[in-house]
Amino acid sequence: MIVSSSRCLAGRGGGEGAAAGTTPTQGAAYLAARCDEALACAQAFARVRAIHAAPPAAPLAVPATSPPAGSRAWVVLLTTARYAVGVKALYNSIAEVESDYPLVVMVTEGVPPHVRDELQAQGCSLHAVGVQPPPAGAPSYASPQFIECWTKLRAWELGYEQVALVDADMVMVRNMDELLAAEADRHSIRAVHECFCVVPRGETRCAHLENARDGPPPHSGSYFNAGLIVLRPCRRVYEHMQAALLTFDLATLSFAEQDFLNEYWAGAWEPLPWVYNATKGLYASHRATVWDFRQVKIVHFTMAKPWELRHPCHSGFERLNELWWAAFGEPATISRILLKLHRHEMQLRSGAELSGVEK
Ligand SMILES: [Mn+2]
Ligand SMILES: [Zn+2]
Description:
Layout: H1 6-11, H2 26-33, H3 39-49, E1 72-78, H4 84-96, E2 103-107, H5 113-122, E3 125-128, E4 162-166, E5 170-172, H6 178-181, E6 189-193, H7 207-214, E7 224-231, H8 235-245, H9 256-264, E8 269-271, E9 278-279, H10 280-285, E10 298-300, H11 318-329, H12 334-350
Bound molecules: manganese (II) ion and zinc ion.
């Protein structure tokens, strides 16, 4: 199920900024500075990202406090009570698909004590983290909630061997333990291509358009959605990312940590199949050729949240929202809702209603 990484790893190097307007040499400038603290990391990353010609192999030192082998978890960040319902639905769904791995909730000081108590009573493992403020010089973001997303980077600090960082607006509908069971590489991450068809960004092409037709997407489509990231926590990588952050022109990162992670891990991320981050954008734009309710493993409720009932942008997603509500209230019905949605899609396809959906 895991897509080969060779194309991605061999490709972009430091050459092509995925985020429009970002200078590709920013990261290289940092790496060239060779801060002692991060030298081993820098060499390892320079090798993977092909920012420099291959330097002498310098194995990354094993951290003094290695996490126990086999310690793996789903991880979600919660910074406000508003998204606690999302975490509850996610937790329910993970239990319903009988995952062998726990859900760890990284909570910040913005989460009130009674919300923490509720989550703990439900069965979530809480892990308090400090807020990572937006870096100085950060722009006005595409969405105000992005300001809090920088704290996601703290997942690299966790004392786990391997984690899958997921968003609080996701619901697991099929067991996907293979993401945590399969050994991930320490020098790359795994994620799913972003779909740019609903909210186009510059000239970047949606990789899913290419996936549906000619197989591997072009490098210009190599931008991932940060809603699901499989990673190996490493404090030195965390520190290296923090230092690298200081060298980026943050005014260009309008999608906050997602843009930064795409720059930092450019050429060193492995594309996962769409089923591991099935966004509403994908559902809206590629139902005829990509989306299949019989395959999807985790749905990502991007844009309007299903629990924000007064949000004006639910049109066209009402049926998909049923999945979230099932996970929140009656998780035992998730598979029945999936089947119902699949049958509805088949009816649409046999009619003419889906014509024109594919862009
Ligand atoms: Mn999200
Ligand atoms: Zn698309």
